[in-house]
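HOLO CASE FILE
Compound: pyridoxal-5'-phosphate
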Amino acid sequence: MEYHPGRHFLQIPGPTNVPDRILRAMDRPVIDHRGPDFARLGEEVLSGCRAIFQTSDPVVLFPGSGTGAWEACIVNTLSPGDRVLAFETGHFATLWQAMARRWGLEVEFVPGDWRHGVDPERVEARLAEDKAHAIRAVMVVHNETSTGVTSRVPEIRKAIDDARHPALFLVDAVSSLGSLEYKHSEWGVDVTVTGSQKGLMLPPGLAFNAVSKKAIAASKSNRAPRSYWDWEEILKSNARFFFPYTPATNLLWGLREAIAMLLEAGLPAVFARHRRHGDAARAAVRHWGFDLLPLDPREFSNSLTAVVMPRGHDADRFRAIALRHYDISLGAGLGKVAGTVFRIGHLGDFNDLMLIGSLAGVEMGLRVAGVPHRAGGVQAAMDSLSKEAVPEAVNVAGASNAGLRS
Ligand code: PLP
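Model generated. Tokens follow.
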């Protein structure tokens, strides 16, 4: 690999930058996954995960990716022939429902324009019509990583309740958990799906399902064939803090550290930091004179920003130029928006100067690529950041100032 001085800017919306603290936590000998030291690690990560998902429900972990977590969710709760309601919010919602079809489910896929999230009113209207309760589950991608649109999960929960419908509520929180506010229990989610490589700041390799009592009950009567993804054996072993098969031990050391870091910062402060960064990134995009892909400000994602390229300019060419000149990886447009959209990831282990550096990489890349834009987006982002201090940074500044005074 060619030498590039300094750190690569990995500003795709996941995998995200893995902090040194986590890299060091994983840099240790592999231990016996059936020995006493493992049980201590297992106990810490299993209880720590509940804090991050904001739940007292069990969180089931698998070696796997977000796609595996989707499959685990489907095969544990739904049987071939079951009807589910899903919404075309973007690429990942499309892939998840395609997987559900491959598992023999009858998917009602409500078309969308890839610029809006799930409309709670539509959810309520469709469920209210379903007097026979044929719909067994509502599937929602909380943060559509392909479009930068965040659906309003609490309002969707309310819509399901207002329709007095018993459907399971299945939510993909792959690019929101650990970055955007997410409350598995309070929001009445039955299965929350995620992966390790985004807000949890870990390398790829872990898949998660947080599972409500209702979801566990559904899994017990569910007829779908399953083996590796079956929750039952895992939950049994987890009761003693072990796993039925070899877990990804060193990723679990990393997860233990990630949980500690998120809790040290405090989840509200983590979410506030992402909100600030989302605001600042959008300020830069508007200043450059580009459109954001999401149209409804209530649904702007604070973990990534999807930018529409000016007509006649190819997003992938621009990304390749930015990579070559400034060693920054930006997210590609996926599926329907390939070539017309690029994405700036600002989730996970990320601070003000990393954001400003990333936006400078975009702005300089636009100039080299000859994409017309109004210069000064980085300044607009700095102005936006200056409006509000970061709660976490206040603590850090307070600590170091105290040190200087002594
Ligand atoms: N769901 C969302 C919202 C995603 O962003 C992704 C990946 O980026 C996935 C699911 C699939 O996860 P993975 O690539 O880890 O299998």
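CASE NOTES: The pocket of pyridoxal-5'-phosphate is lined by residues 14, 65-67, 92, 141, 145, 172, 174-175, 195 (CB under 6 Å). Residues 394-406 have pLDDT under 50 and may be disordered.
CLOSED: yes
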